[in-house]
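hey so i finally got around to running the thing on that chain from the lab meeting. sorry it took forever, my laptop kept dying and i had to restart like 3 times. anyway pasting the input first so we r on the same page abt which one it is
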Amino acid sequence: MNSTSVTVVGNLVADPVQRQVADDVRVTGFRLACTPRVPDGSGGWTDGRTCFYQVSAWRQLGANTGESLRKGERVVVVGRLGVDTWEDRDGNSRSTVEITADHVGHDLTFGTTRFTRVVRASSGGPPDAAVAPDAAVLGTPESDAGDAGAGDSVAAAAASG
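ok and heres what got predicted. didnt touch it at all, straight out
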């Protein structure tokens, strides 16, 4: 199945809503408003047409998103684009553009944020992409304390060529 990858930047319309859909699976949904700035023809800028997207973040990304984001915050979402269509009660065809998020983060153009690593018990499966293996390279508190971590081997590998 083909999917279209997109990156969108916008503001949360409301606080994210978390739901438990299975014993250990959470999904967090939020609406994102994206308004481009366009030239107005006289050397200035004006707001373009606002697009709204429904975003779904699953599992650990959903849990972290629900804990981290609030209404009005500007975020960057990378994910897979889809369109959901249905008929309303009057028989009219309706559709909404949805994004299944692969990555979500604050847009640091207009503010700052503080990263807190999630500590999870190992399940014996592959590492979760939501936990950055090279956090020591990025200057997280773990690297400031001098702890050796996965990031040290990444930094050493990068330095050696």
